[in-house]
Specification:
This protein is of the alpha/beta class and about 325 residues long. The protein has helices spanning about 30-45, 60-70, 95-105, 140-155, 170-175, 195-205, 230-240, 245-255, 265-270, 280-290, 300-305, 305-315; strands spanning about 5, 15, 20, 50, 80-85, 110-115, 120-125, 135-140, 160-165, 185-190, 210, 260. The chain is built from twelve helices and twelve strands. Bound molecules: adenosine-2'-5'-diphosphate. This is D-galacturonate reductase.
Length: about 325
């Protein structure tokens, strides 16, 4: 079973395994498929799982965790690191604790290890389909929302708190009011969206970055094959006897960030863990640093091209 390094997060006791298994599938997977994939992931060595209220995978993940404990695949709940996220429809000060409790109810857990604000935006309604009308998209009440997140820690519902898809200016706002600073910012990052400015900022502020879509979310509605189909990465992979996916994941890891990568395929999820006992050469790193930059995931693609949404996309 692969040995996965862990990273210490500011203010969080438990270290976080640097690669987490994503649980959002496209097209959406049913409960049994997700549960089976997570169990397979645990057998492969994954101990960090990434979900969100909006992914619809919390229940399946929770069932897989319960099953893994029953089967003795993991000794105790504390051997796992579980991240989930506050959906924008509940990103109002008085709804955060109950939203976190609802996620815990889905997961059938007493606590999560990391609770993230999913997007820096509030929706004033619960939405069943996207895009959404412009009038329900509002700016976050940053102070009130962050106090709600801190309350989740104080109540023991989560060990750590952080954000996702937050540009520097919103992080500044949180840092100026936080009693518990954000430990993590989970953002899109891969060889084609390297996030240099945000990474530098977060490093200075001791906020750890987790990269989602490290493989460009190939074969999903929001991703493409610009990474897995890229010749520069494929040539590097060939010269090292690795796969293009492994080169992309290794590059992300070498930037000092952690990874949330989804594969529900038994071979590929294992392959993605085989990135810790080799490294990229200076020459290869240089080639990767010159790849053209194109952002894959936009909030506008989900919510619609509303002014506030476009402003967030432009700063991420
Ligand atoms: P699958 O679940 O069938 O393996 P990202 O991590 O950037 O979100 O990308 C996820 C997508 O990449 C999924 O479609 C996943 O499909 C695919 N994928 C994951 N690992 C690999 C790999 N090693 N080689 C090729 N495709 C992969």
């Amino acid at each position: 079973m692969a040995e996965i390094p862990s990273v210490n997060l500011a203010g969080v006791e438990k270290a976080m395994p640097v690669i987490g298994m994503g649980t959002m599938a496209f097209p959406p997977a049913d409960l049994e498929t997700t549960k089976a994939a997570v169990l397979e992931g645990i057998k492969a060595g994954y101990r960090h799982f990434d979900t969100a209220f909006s992914y619809g995978s919390e229940k399946a993940l929770g069932e897989a965790v319960a099953e893994a404990l029953r089967l003795g695949l993991v000794e105790s709940r504390s051997d796992l690191f579980i991240t989930t996220k506050l959906w924008a429809s509940f990103a109002a000060p008085d709804q955060i604790v109950s939203a976190c409790k609802a996620s815990l109810e889905n997961l059938k857990l007493e606590y999560v290890d990391m609770y993230l604000i999913h997007w820096p935006v509030r929706l004033t309604e619960i939405v069943k389909k996207t895009p959404v009308p412009e009038e329900i998209v509002k700016a976050l009440d940053m102070k009130g929302v962050w106090e709600g997140m801190e309350e989740c820690v104080n109540l023991g519902l989560t060990k750590g708190i952080g954000v996702s898809n937050f540009p520097c200016k919103f992080l500044e706002e949180i840092l100026s009011i936080a009693k518990i600073p954000p430990a993590v910012n989970q953002v899109e990052m891969n060889p084609f969206w390297q996030q240099k400015k945000l990474r530098d900022f977060c490093k200075e502020k001791d906020i750890h970055i987790t990269a989602y879509s490290p493989l460009g979310a190939n074969n999903t509605k929001w991703g493409d094959n610009r990474i897995l189909g890229n010749d520069v990465l494929a040539d590097i992979a060939k010269s090292m006897g690795k796969t293009t996916a492994q080169v992309a994941l290794r590059w992300v890891y070498e930037q000092g960030v952690s990874i949330a990568s989804k594969s529900f395929n038994k071979e590929r999820m294992r392959q993605n863990l085989e990135i810790f006992d080799w490294c990229l050469s200076e020459e290869d790193l240089d080639k990767i640093s010159q790849l053209p930059q194109t952002k894959g995931v936009t909030l506008a693609a989900v919510l619609g091209p509303h002014p506030l949404v476009l402003e967030i996309d432009a700063s991420l």
